[in-house]
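User: Teach me something about this protein's shape.
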Amino acid sequence: MGENPRQAEPKIFFTNSMSVISFSLVISLTGKNNFAEVLRELLHSFPNLAMTTDLSNSTALHTAASQGHIDVVNLLLESDSNLAKIARNNGKTVLHSAARMGHLEVVNALLNKDPSTGFRTDRKGQTALHMAVKGQNEEILLELVKPDPAVLHLEDNKGNTALHIATKKGRTQVILYSFSIYSV
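Assistant: First, the predicted structure itself:
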């Protein structure tokens, strides 16, 4: 049977030439409450571990952000804030993933580190705001627009703004919320 990726056990893979450490394995060995502590020790012993990527150029930060693990996100950003600038092969940043998945705390943490990341585009020319309107969390829209409302006017490779995408997806609440942002 196919596994629904949203129901799959969370996994973060740290890879280097000698080992693969699975997020789910560490959680099962330490319990969810101790994971950040274990990760802190791993990063202390292996500082470059946070910068390792998989074949799609994803880092542990990408996975933690897309799953909403704010403690892990904060710890990884603390170890190296440049992690937030690493884009996957498809051009999506950590902010794209967190915005699409509706993780407000993660979006705030990323924007606090570097507000300009809201203007980064993926290979389709979409920003994190384009991704956020596909989700259901209207608060994220406001957070993404706060640093610079000009992000509302950015068009993707097909000429769509985030509002165009929200309209196409039938996201009525997002559309109404977007109009309230425009009127501010």
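Now, about its shape. The two ends are 49 Å apart (CA to CA). The domain at 13-183 is CATH 1.25.40.20 (Serine Threonine Protein Phosphatase 5, Tetratricopeptide repeat). If you'd like, I can walk through any region in more detail.
User: That's plenty for now, thanks!
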